[in-house]
Amino acid sequence: MGLQSFVEVHPDSHFPIQNLPYGVFRPEPGSEPRPGVAIGDYVLDLSAIASAGLFDGPILRRSDCFHQTNLNKLLGMGRPAWTEARATIQKILSSTEPTLRDNASLRQKALVPMDKAEMLLPMAIGDYTDFFTSMHHTKNCGIIFRGPDTPIPPNWFHLPIAYHGRASSVVVSGTDIVRPRGQGHPTDNSPPYFGPSLKLDFELEMAVIVGPGNELGKSIDVNEAADHIFGLVLMNDWSARDIQAWEYIPLGPFLGKSFGTTISPWIVTLDALEPFACDAPKQNPRPLPYLAEKVSKIYDISLEVRIKPAGEEQAHVVTRSNLKHLYWTLTQQLAHHTINGCNLRPGDLLGTGTISGPEPESYGCLLELTWNGQNLLSLGGTTRKFLGRWR
Amino acid sequence: MGLQSFVEVHPDSHFPIQNLPYGVFRPEPGSEPRPGVAIGDYVLDLSAIASAGLFDGPILRRSDCFHQTNLNKLLGMGRPAWTEARATIQKILSSTEPTLRDNASLRQKALVPMDKAEMLLPMAIGDYTDFFTSMHHTKNCGIIFRGPDTPIPPNWFHLPIAYHGRASSVVVSGTDIVRPRGQGHPTDNSPPYFGPSLKLDFELEMAVIVGPGNELGKSIDVNEAADHIFGLVLMNDWSARDIQAWEYIPLGPFLGKSFGTTISPWIVTLDALEPFACDAPKQNPRPLPYLAEKVSKIYDISLEVRIKPAGEEQAHVVTRSNLKHLYWTLTQQLAHHTINGCNLRPGDLLGTGTISGPEPESYGCLLELTWNGQNLLSLGGTTRKFLGRWR
């Protein structure tokens, strides 16, 4: 039996004392945003804990990082601060520690019922980058968009391919997404289609939240890259496949993606994920020295996507995948990003790309699941090619 | 004879009272950054002018937009504020207005010799987008990278193609750029090259600085797009052609660009550019209704690139081009960017893409000028394929 909290945590909760993901929330409408961590059905208000003087370690004692409206300051402080914060929070939430447990007035102030908390985007995102690191997804998209000859481009096994995404339209889970209008690929010699996207899709991803950055012109060593990663969020890289297919040659995806990208409000730290670390897949050909890691690991994280049609009670599972299906590790992605001297900043978001597994049931988007609309996906009583019932 | 300033302005100065571009500067090392406008060989310190109570119009009277360390607040206030600011500044700088002219102590405070001022990035850039709107550049790159068959992709005449760039590595003119390391395209079956880029290039561009933005999910009408444009900067989109050629399939340019992008410290406003407006090129096929403008204009701005080799006295002109060579207008670029609901924010940077004209002497980058290194470019006594003498 491991560490336990005095806060009651249901056995199937995502938020035991071993997790403690970070977010930013308002305890009530109109109140100032503040950092918090999830514990059971509560959010622990870190500004209240800091005001009570409970962050008494050498780094955090004099810091105002928990009196900010986002996590960027904490992100920039790096692993020593994160380790100290985690130790302090685990201690004050543990069942054997009386400080918070036996202080009813502080508990009242600091433990906010999660269903009362309004969750916000946890950090100001300077830049958002999206990688393309699942081999299965790459191969499926290659066949669908470019045909069965060499669906995986020759560069793919040498470097973690990525593109710059749009930071302004990254929103927190629960934010409405408006179906984008745009130009779709013409058929034959007709003019391009214009109107609301007919091929709206989700993409199952996770994303790294960058901690301390690097100076412009300096690179981050792949073996030190983990110290620049605060943690991971879930991400849905909403995609309009008809817009994307028409616009992406030769400079890549643009409006087919930039209408909205959703991330989870909770950032799960690398410390919390450590028990789920596993060996990364073997890479062949061997990566160039700047991408060769002393220890090459990924995390065994089961991922699931459910769709709940409008007006229906029930959500339907449409895919089951796992982070461990990625070919390139998170640390390789980050190191590659800086090999040219590009500067990362605290709060930057690095998406993994769609996480598809090898089996059709594990494909991470409808483009693959319905093979670009050629097959129907069953959702209880109805079917889908892409998102929405209106076509 | 038009409006004249009491500040002496040389006839060949870029900064007569008709221009008045905005920037952000430090009057001396370590002092607080503040907004300014250029006039002759001086920078007018707008924080000093505001402190003296000279911004006395209805919008700016109570605003603290000139007491900020960047221009974002002014950018977000929109055209009425910009018009009021320009009128006020032109008035107080004019030869017939005694307020500043005859106040030695205020002149001493507010007029900073340009060679003493440290120019900074004028705004915080939320997102940076780079378009691809010169037909000549598109065609030349198409032939070089993809061969002579259909060098201009079929989508190009239907929409202003663009990609998301890296905001963190945008720097102000004069900032050193470190030659990026990275993977270059392998020849035949060899492994990819790794090392400092062998094909470092400049790209002659201009870029829009966005004023008021739009809400996520709402588009900006092309006929109202000009009200969302504060002004233009010069831009050098440094490019590593060997890195770019290897990485860009299928998701576009990434590390071949993100090691640095230089913009001028001065933003020339659309108001100042109005006398240089001219008809935009005729577009065929006719653009879709959301891109069809009642008035379709561009600006006649002569552009020149000079290279000054290390250790030499003299800079050599390597290209002469003009903004009017663009096929898609600035307002079409901005409207297209939002047609899917993507939200722009004050301070966003929208590059035009390389501005190449029809003649070889007007090509906007070395890739085109030396045809990917096949020809030598003469620079006084030496020659170049790409930037740097070391290869």
UniProtKB/TrEMBL annotation, chains A, B:
The active site is at 137 (proton acceptor). Its EC number is 3.7.1.2. Its cofactor is Mg(2+); Ca(2+). One of its GO terms (molecular function) is metal ion binding. Substrate binds at residues 132, 146, 244, 248, 354. It comes from the Eukaryota. Pathway: Amino-acid degradation; L-phenylalanine degradation; acetoacetate and fumarate from L-phenylalanine: step 6/6. InterPro entries: Fumarylacetoacetase, Fumarylacetoacetase-like_C, Fumarylacetoacetase_C_sf, Fumarylacetoacetase_N, Fumarylacetoacetase_N_sf. Keywords: Calcium, Hydrolase, Magnesium, Metal-binding, Phenylalanine catabolism, Tyrosine catabolism. Residues 136-359 form the Fumarylacetoacetase-like C-terminal domain. It catalyses: 4-fumarylacetoacetate + H2O = acetoacetate + fumarate + H(+). Residues 18-122 form the Fumarylacetoacetase N-terminal domain. It is an enzyme of class 3 (hydrolase). Ca(2+) binds at residues 130, 203, 205, 237. Belongs to the FAH family. PANTHER family: FUMARYLACETOACETASE. This is Fumarylacetoacetase. It comes from Actinidia rufa.
